Amino acid sequence: MLYKALYTSPIGELTLASDGENLVGLWLEGQKYFAHGITEELIENSCLKIFAVTKNWLDRYFKGENPAISELKLAPRGNEFRQEVWRILCEIPYGKTTTYGDIAQKLAARRGLERMSAQAVGGAVGHNPISIIIPCHRVVGKNGSLTGYAGGIRNKIKLLELENADLTIK
Protein backbone atom coordinates (compact mmCIF):
# COMPACT_ATOMS: atom_id res chain seq x y z
CA MET A 1 0.00 0.00 0.00
CA LEU A 2 1.27 3.47 -0.89
CA TYR A 3 0.25 6.82 0.47
CA LYS A 4 0.30 10.32 -0.95
CA ALA A 5 0.30 13.89 0.23
CA LEU A 6 0.35 17.17 -1.64
CA TYR A 7 2.79 20.05 -1.18
CA THR A 8 2.33 23.51 -2.66
CA SER A 9 5.69 24.81 -3.85
CA PRO A 10 6.83 27.93 -5.70
CA ILE A 11 6.98 25.85 -8.90
CA GLY A 12 3.55 24.28 -8.47
CA GLU A 13 1.86 21.46 -6.65
CA LEU A 14 4.03 18.46 -5.79
CA THR A 15 2.75 14.96 -5.11
CA LEU A 16 4.67 13.01 -2.46
CA ALA A 17 4.39 9.22 -2.25
CA SER A 18 5.43 6.90 0.57
CA ASP A 19 5.34 3.25 1.52
CA GLY A 20 4.57 4.39 5.07
CA GLU A 21 8.21 4.75 6.15
CA ASN A 22 10.16 5.94 3.11
CA LEU A 23 9.64 8.50 0.39
CA VAL A 24 9.19 6.59 -2.88
CA GLY A 25 8.10 9.45 -5.11
CA LEU A 26 7.96 13.20 -5.56
CA TRP A 27 6.50 14.52 -8.81
CA LEU A 28 5.71 17.94 -10.17
CA GLU A 29 2.23 18.53 -11.50
CA GLY A 30 2.14 17.43 -15.15
CA GLN A 31 5.60 15.87 -14.97
CA LYS A 32 6.56 13.39 -17.65
CA TYR A 33 6.60 9.87 -16.13
CA PHE A 34 4.36 11.02 -13.25
CA ALA A 35 4.11 8.05 -10.84
CA HIS A 36 5.83 5.84 -13.43
CA GLY A 37 6.37 2.36 -12.03
CA ILE A 38 3.80 2.79 -9.27
CA THR A 39 1.22 0.06 -9.66
CA GLU A 40 -0.55 0.48 -6.32
CA GLU A 41 -3.28 3.01 -5.67
CA LEU A 42 -1.98 6.11 -3.89
CA ILE A 43 -4.14 6.68 -0.81
CA GLU A 44 -4.30 10.17 0.66
CA ASN A 45 -2.62 10.28 4.08
CA SER A 46 -0.84 13.53 4.84
CA CYS A 47 -0.28 12.55 8.50
CA LEU A 48 2.73 10.29 7.92
CA LYS A 49 5.98 11.31 9.62
CA ILE A 50 7.94 10.96 6.35
CA PHE A 51 5.63 13.53 4.74
CA ALA A 52 6.14 16.00 7.61
CA VAL A 53 9.92 15.56 7.40
CA THR A 54 9.87 15.89 3.60
CA LYS A 55 7.68 19.02 3.69
CA ASN A 56 10.06 20.59 6.21
CA TRP A 57 12.98 19.70 3.92
CA LEU A 58 11.17 21.27 0.95
CA ASP A 59 10.28 24.40 2.95
CA ARG A 60 13.96 24.93 3.72
CA TYR A 61 15.03 24.13 0.16
CA PHE A 62 12.61 26.64 -1.34
CA LYS A 63 13.86 29.28 1.14
CA GLY A 64 17.29 28.89 -0.49
CA GLU A 65 18.81 26.61 2.13
CA ASN A 66 20.72 23.43 1.34
CA PRO A 67 19.16 20.65 3.43
CA ALA A 68 21.01 17.34 3.30
CA ILE A 69 19.49 14.55 1.23
CA SER A 70 20.54 12.16 4.00
CA GLU A 71 17.89 13.70 6.30
CA LEU A 72 15.25 11.80 4.33
CA LYS A 73 14.53 8.09 4.07
CA LEU A 74 14.40 7.57 0.31
CA ALA A 75 13.38 4.38 -1.49
CA PRO A 76 13.05 5.16 -5.19
CA ARG A 77 11.83 2.23 -7.25
CA GLY A 78 13.85 1.23 -10.27
CA ASN A 79 16.25 -1.32 -11.67
CA GLU A 80 19.88 -1.58 -10.56
CA PHE A 81 21.16 0.68 -13.35
CA ARG A 82 18.71 3.46 -12.54
CA GLN A 83 19.40 3.14 -8.81
CA GLU A 84 23.10 3.57 -9.49
CA VAL A 85 22.50 6.67 -11.63
CA TRP A 86 20.21 8.14 -8.94
CA ARG A 87 22.91 7.60 -6.31
CA ILE A 88 25.32 9.57 -8.50
CA LEU A 89 22.74 12.35 -8.84
CA CYS A 90 22.71 12.64 -5.05
CA GLU A 91 26.46 13.38 -5.17
CA ILE A 92 26.03 16.51 -7.32
CA PRO A 93 26.67 19.47 -5.00
CA TYR A 94 23.98 22.07 -4.37
CA GLY A 95 24.26 24.90 -6.88
CA LYS A 96 26.47 22.91 -9.26
CA THR A 97 25.71 21.12 -12.50
CA THR A 98 27.15 18.12 -14.27
CA THR A 99 26.56 16.56 -17.67
CA TYR A 100 25.03 13.29 -18.77
CA GLY A 101 28.45 12.42 -20.21
CA ASP A 102 30.20 13.07 -16.89
CA ILE A 103 27.75 10.78 -15.12
CA ALA A 104 28.28 8.14 -17.81
CA GLN A 105 32.06 8.34 -17.29
CA LYS A 106 31.69 8.07 -13.52
CA LEU A 107 29.36 5.10 -13.88
CA ALA A 108 31.69 3.37 -16.36
CA ALA A 109 34.61 3.81 -13.96
CA ARG A 110 32.61 2.37 -11.05
CA ARG A 111 31.63 -0.62 -13.16
CA GLY A 112 35.11 -1.15 -14.58
CA LEU A 113 33.96 -0.40 -18.12
CA GLU A 114 35.73 1.56 -20.83
CA ARG A 115 32.66 3.65 -21.56
CA MET A 116 28.97 4.03 -20.83
CA SER A 117 26.18 5.52 -22.94
CA ALA A 118 25.23 9.08 -22.01
CA GLN A 119 21.84 8.38 -23.61
CA ALA A 120 21.25 5.45 -21.25
CA VAL A 121 22.17 7.71 -18.35
CA GLY A 122 19.74 10.31 -19.70
CA GLY A 123 16.94 7.76 -19.66
CA ALA A 124 17.64 6.90 -16.03
CA VAL A 125 17.89 10.59 -15.07
CA GLY A 126 14.57 11.30 -16.81
CA HIS A 127 12.84 8.52 -14.88
CA ASN A 128 14.02 9.77 -11.48
CA PRO A 129 10.96 9.24 -9.26
CA ILE A 130 12.00 11.68 -6.51
CA SER A 131 12.38 15.01 -8.27
CA ILE A 132 14.14 17.95 -6.61
CA ILE A 133 15.45 15.87 -3.68
CA ILE A 134 17.34 13.52 -6.00
CA PRO A 135 18.61 16.49 -7.99
CA CYS A 136 18.16 15.52 -11.64
CA HIS A 137 17.63 19.23 -12.40
CA ARG A 138 21.40 19.66 -11.94
CA VAL A 139 22.18 17.60 -15.05
CA VAL A 140 22.77 19.53 -18.28
CA GLY A 141 23.83 18.79 -21.84
CA LYS A 142 27.52 18.54 -22.75
CA ASN A 143 27.74 22.19 -23.80
CA GLY A 144 25.86 23.32 -20.70
CA SER A 145 22.50 23.43 -22.46
CA LEU A 146 19.47 23.12 -20.21
CA THR A 147 17.93 20.08 -21.79
CA GLY A 148 15.91 17.08 -20.74
CA TYR A 149 13.99 17.81 -17.56
CA ALA A 150 10.82 15.77 -17.04
CA GLY A 151 9.40 18.58 -14.89
CA GLY A 152 9.82 21.12 -17.69
CA ILE A 153 12.71 23.37 -18.65
CA ARG A 154 11.15 26.43 -16.95
CA ASN A 155 11.07 24.57 -13.64
CA LYS A 156 14.63 23.33 -14.15
CA ILE A 157 15.77 26.93 -14.63
CA LYS A 158 13.83 28.08 -11.53
CA LEU A 159 15.42 25.35 -9.39
CA LEU A 160 18.93 26.12 -10.64
CA GLU A 161 18.36 29.85 -10.11
CA LEU A 162 17.13 29.14 -6.58
CA GLU A 163 20.44 27.35 -5.97
CA ASN A 164 22.38 30.25 -7.57
CA ALA A 165 23.87 27.81 -10.07
CA ASP A 166 26.04 29.19 -12.85
CA LEU A 167 23.79 28.91 -15.93
CA THR A 168 26.23 30.31 -18.47
CA ILE A 169 26.81 27.94 -21.35
CA LYS A 170 30.40 26.76 -21.37
Helix content: 25-40%
Beta-strand residue percentage:
15-25%
How many structural units, i.e. domains?
Answer: 2
Question: So, the CATH homologous superfamily of the largest domain?
Answer: Winged helix-like DNA-binding domain superfamily/Winged helix DNA-binding domain
What name does the CATH topology of the largest domain carry?
A: Arc Repressor Mutant, subunit A
- What do the pLDDT scores average to? 91
Indicate the radius of gyration in whole angstroms: 15 Å
Order of helices and strands: EEEEHHEHHEH
Q: DSSP helix count?
A: 5
- Main β-sheet, spatial strand arrangement: 3-2-1-4
CATH class of the largest domain: Mainly Alpha
- Looking at the overall shape, the CATH architecture of the largest domain is Orthogonal Bundle
Written overview of the protein:
The protein is of the alpha/beta class. It is globular, with a radius of gyration of 15 Å. The strands form two sheets. Strands 3-2-1-4 form a four-stranded mixed β-sheet, covered by helices on one side. The protein has a two-stranded parallel sheet with strand order 5-6. Helix 3 (100-111) packs across helix 4. The protein contains five helices and six strands; from the N terminus they run E-E-E-E-H-H-E-H-H-E-H. It has two domains: 2-71, Double Stranded RNA Binding Domain (2-Layer Sandwich); 80-162, Arc Repressor Mutant, subunit A, CATH 1.10.10.10.
